[in-house]
TrEMBL record:
Protein name: GDP-fucose protein O-fucosyltransferase 2
Involved pathway(s): Protein modification; protein glycosylation
GO MF terms, alphabetically ordered: nucleic acid binding; peptide-O-fucosyltransferase activity
Record function comment: Catalyzes the reaction that attaches fucose through an O-glycosidic linkage to a conserved serine or threonine residue in the consensus sequence C1-X-X-S/T-C2 of thrombospondin type I repeats (TSRs) where C1 and C2 are the first and second cysteines of the repeat, respectively. O-fucosylates members of several protein families including the ADAMTS, the thrombospondin (TSP) and spondin families. Required for the proper secretion of ADAMTS family members such as ADAMTSL1 and ADAMTS13.
Chief site of localization: endoplasmic reticulum
Amino acid sequence: MDWPARSPDLNPIEHIWDIMSRSIHQRHVAPQTVQELADALDQVWEKIPQETIRHLIRSMPRYLLYDVNPPEGFNLRRDVYIRMASLVKTLRRHGDWVLVLPPWGRLYHWQSPDIHQTRIPWGEFFSLTSLQGNVPVIEYEEFIAESGGPFIEQVLVLQNYAEGWTDGKWEEKVNERPCVERLMYSKDKQGYYRGWFWGYEETRCVNVTCLSAQGHASMLAPLLQNNITSTSVMLDRAETVLHDHYAGKDYWNTRRSMVFAKHLRLLGDEFRAKYLNSTDEQDQIVYNEDWTLIKNKLGSARGGPYLGVHLRRKDFIWDHREDVPSLKGAVKKIMSLMKKTKLDRVFVATDADDEELAELKRMLPEMTRFEPTWEDLELLKDGGVAIIDQWICAHARFFIGTSVSTFSFRIHEEREILGFEPKTTYNRFCGDSEKECEQPTHWKIVY
Ligand SMILES: Nc1nc2c(ncn2[C@@H]2O[C@H](COP(=O)(O)OP(=O)(O)O)[C@@H](O)[C@H]2O)c(=O)[nH]1
Ligand SMILES: [Mg+2]
C-alpha cells in the first residue's frame, strides 16, 4: 500500500491514526485490527497529548446496538427505533456512531407455525436506503462483518430506579446500579457473557452492567461519550428511555424514513388495485420513493373507495378491556360508518382467531381481507403480512382503528404522511358499554 504523504499539521502518530481510520471507513481494516495496533503503540502512547487521544477516539467508528423487552410487539419496537435514532443523532455530534439494527424475531404475536421467524434483517420489512437517509444504520450481520466478529464489548441493561421516584419528584437521571431483575445474560466457560442476541448464538459480550435510567434517550449521550470507551455498546431494555421530543420534527423525520420495503408496498398496491378499485392516481395520493420529497398537505389525499378497519383482538379481548368492542359492536359501527361515508367496500385488518373470523364474515359478508397463502406467508412472514395490512388501511378513504393499539397508531402516522384529512384518520372503536369514548389524539406532522 502507498502511504499518503503526511500533512504538516499532523504529528507522526496522528498521521498513522489518520491512515488507519480512513482504512476503517473504506472497510479495509476492521476496528479490531486498529485496536491491536493501538495496543502495540502503547509504549509511545504516554507521550501523546491527552487532547490528541481524545480526538483519535472520537474519530473511530462506534456502534450502538439495542434490544427491547421480549414481550413487546412489532409496533412498539418501531417506536423504540425512533428513540434510538434520536440518541445516535445526538451522539454523532461528537463521534462517528452507527446504529446497528436489531434483527427481528421471536415476537410473541408471530405464531404462524412451521416458518422460520428469527434473525430477520430489517431489509425484509423496511427500505434500508430510506432509513439511511435519516441516520447511519447497518444490519447486525454487517456489524459482525465489519467489526471483526459476533462480539459486543459492553451491554448496558437499562432499568428503572429500584426506589421509584424519590419524594414523588420526577427528575432525569442515570446511574450504574445493581441489577434489579434477574440478568438475562450468563457467563460461559471462557468468561464471556452469552444471551439471546436475536438468535445469534455465537455472539459474545465482554461486560454486562445495569444502568438505572429515568428520562429521555439522549440523556445517555454524555455517559456513552465520556465514560465508556468500548467501540460497541448495546442498550438492552431500550424502551426504558423516553422520546427526546415526541411528535417533534426529529421524531417525524425518523418516522418518515421508516418506509416499508418495496416488495410489501407493491403487494399492498396490487391488492388495492385488484380488490378495492384503488390506485394512487385515482385516490389523489402523491407518493415518492424518496421520503424526503413527500410533503403532502393534510387533506390533499382522498384515499381509495373503501373503509379501512383495524380490529385488534387476541390479548386485547382476553383481559376484557372496556375500551374494546364485542364483534357485534364492531360490526354495528362498521355498518353505520359505511352508510355515513357512502362506501360500500370495507377492508378489515385483524388478528382475530378463526372462530371470530368466521363470525365476522357471517355478520359482514361484504368485507375484504388480505389472506396470504402458506407460500406467501413463508416469504413475507407474519411481519410482512402485518405491514401489508397496515399499508392497505393507510390508503383507505376513511379509517377506524382499535383503542391504544400501537398497530393502529402506526397506521395513523402513515396516513398523516400521505396527507389525509385528520377526521378520516383519528377514529377508534368504542367498547360496548364504554362511557367516555375519547378518540385518538391527532399528532400533527412536522417538517
Ligand atoms: N396481519 C395482522 N397482524 C396483526 C393485526 N393486528 C395485530 N396483529 C399482530 O399482532 C401484533 C400486535 O402487536 P403490536 O405490534 O405490539 O401492536 P399492539 O399490541 O396492538 O399495540 C402485530 O405486530 C401483528 O403481528 C392485523 O390487523 N393484521
Ligand atoms: Mg403489543
